[in-house]
Amino acid sequence: MTQSLRLIFGFILGSQLLSSSLLQAEQSEVEFFEKKIRPVLVKHCYECHSVEASAVKGGLLLDSREGLLAGGDSGPSLVPGKSAESTLIESLKYESYEMPPSGKLPEHVIRDFEQWIDTGAIDPRAPTQKQTQAGIDWEAARQFWA
Question: CA–CA separation, 41 vs 29, rounded Å?
């Protein structure tokens, strides 16, 4: 086998191994989210912070990744990779807002959220209907100026 063929074969094999390990890592991150993060959000947050809420409090939607990144009235709720800069963590620790208002979550749950954010906040949820329709409402604009 010539040197260039060995190099090409090595590159292909290396890239396959890398993509396989990245896929496994992402799958484990999704599993972590589904087992440790989503159930807490559903149980303690969605009543006030989802598109299904009768009134979304603080303008904050927590039922999709886009909602978490966009944040609410006080800005983005999380910074992927930086739990220390995420207002979501401050709120869970009762350092700024006190969320959930029904009582502080156990420390191990807060650590799960920190770990999730520090590893990139992988979130497989699709954007909610409300978020996919975001944009300019041209009909409302026409009515305003009519």
Answer: 16
Which residues lie closer than 8 Å to 19 by C-beta, 6 or more apart? none
Peptide bond into 100 cis (omega under 30): yes
Question: What distance lies between CA 92 and its chain's CA centroid?
Answer: 15
Annotate 74-96 with b (16+ C-beta within 10 A) or e (fewer): eebbbbbeebeebbbbbbbbeee
Tell me the chain's radius of gyration from C-alpha atoms. Answer: 21
User: Which residues is 75 bridged to in the sheet?
Assistant: 72
pTM of the model: 0.72
Q: What is the pLDDT of residues 39-84, one digit of tens each?
A: 999 999 999 999 999 889 999 999 999 999 999 999 999 999 999 9
